[in-house]
Specification:
149 residues, Aminopeptidase, alpha+beta, transferase, 4 helices, ribosomal protein, 5 strands, acyltransferase activity, transferring groups other than amino-acyl groups
């Protein structure tokens, strides 16, 4: 895989903070740096509810993907959610996200996951094409709904 994945560790937090801040700015997600740090740190320290993979070289990652884990009776066991995936704008369009989204589900299935989910902005046609191309399918009768606690 040219877009090698490496499990992020606590020492990657500062590097990851910059990437996540860039994604959040692009996506219009408002979160202060302390909240962002508090949300990322447990994932890097081995919390069992999720993980972060850095994409590409360790010194200068091309992006990242954050996965969270849950349980689904409908899908028959442990499932995952692509919480965020980000590729630096300057290198988009080179197939890196496609490569990640084709390889990662295979590895996760081997670890016992039964399904992988994600959400996409209804107006983001490029992202929708990427996700369709990598095997994700819309669930026409369902929509993700959230309640902030």
């Amino acid at each position: 895989m040219s877009a090698a994945l490496r499990l992020a560790r606590p020492e990657d937090l500062d590097r990851l903070m910059g990437l996540v801040a860039a994604f959040h700015a692009e996506a219009g997600i408002e979160q202060d740096p302390d909240q962002r740090r508090a949300a990322l740190a447990p994932l890097l320290e081995g919390i069992p509810h999720g993980c972060v993979y850095l994409i590409g070289p360790a010194r200068a990652p091309l992006g990242y993907v954050i996965l969270t884990f849950g349980w689904s009776v409908e899908f028959g066991g442990m499932d995952g959610f692509v919480d965020e995936i980000y590729i630096r704008p300057a290198i988009r369009g080179r197939g890196i996200a496609t490569e990640v989204l084709l390889a990662l589900p295979k590895a996760l299935a081997g670890a016992g996951l039964t399904a992988l989910h994600l959400e996409v902005d209804r107006t983001n046609e490029a992202a929708q094409k990427l996700y369709l191309r990598t095997g994700f399918k819309p669930r026409d009768r369902y929509m993700l709904m959230s309640k902030k606690l």
